[in-house]
Amino acid sequence: MQDKNASSNAGKFFDIKFIKSDGNLYIYEVTFPKESTSPLELVQGGMIDSALDEATSWTVHKAFESKKLPFTTDHHVLFHRPIKIGKATIKSEIIKKGSTVTTVEGKLYDQDNNLVATMLHTALPTDPIKLK
């Protein structure tokens, strides 16, 4: 991701790239590496959760013009089908942009554009903390 104030190791691990924004809709490309698989050789559910958390967090950051970072209070993931390793797409949309509480929906799509998982993410928009 471009903004060093909001970069994370999860974003680097999944090589998440911001593609574009169209109003409240934000689109990202994510790459699930072989290290993210379960014994079934499919992407492990916690890895899907982590990628969706990262993308929806970036959506909050971008929606607040890179001035706020999300402090997560809750998120829920629904799994619809399995996904193999490789590139995928995350579409994220602001449901409610509030100065104290913001809610974002994230949807992960596989290589064939099938819906894999949906996340509802609630966060407190927070000023970034600079550690020395």
Order of helices and strands: HEEHEEEE
Rg from alpha-carbon coordinates: 14 Å
Approximate shape = globular
Count of alpha and pi helical runs: 2
Low-confidence stretches: 1-6
What's the SSE blueprint?
Layout: H1 9-13, E1 17-22, E2 25-32, H2 45-63, E3 69-79, E4 86-97, E5 102-109, E6 115-126
Antiparallel strand pairs: 1-2, 2-4, 3-6, 4-5, 5-6
Short note summarizing the structure:
The chain has about 130 residues and is of the alpha+beta class. The chain is about 20% helix and about 45% strand.
Structural account:
It contains two helices and six strands; from the N terminus they run H-E-E-H-E-E-E-E. The protein is α+β, with helices and mostly antiparallel strands. The chain has a single domain, classed as Hotdog Thioesterase (Thiol Ester Dehydrase, Chain A, Roll), CATH 3.10.129.
Fill in the keyword field for this structure:
132 residues; alpha+beta; Thiol Ester Dehydrase, Chain A; 6-stranded antiparallel sheet; 18% helix; 43% strand; disordered N terminus
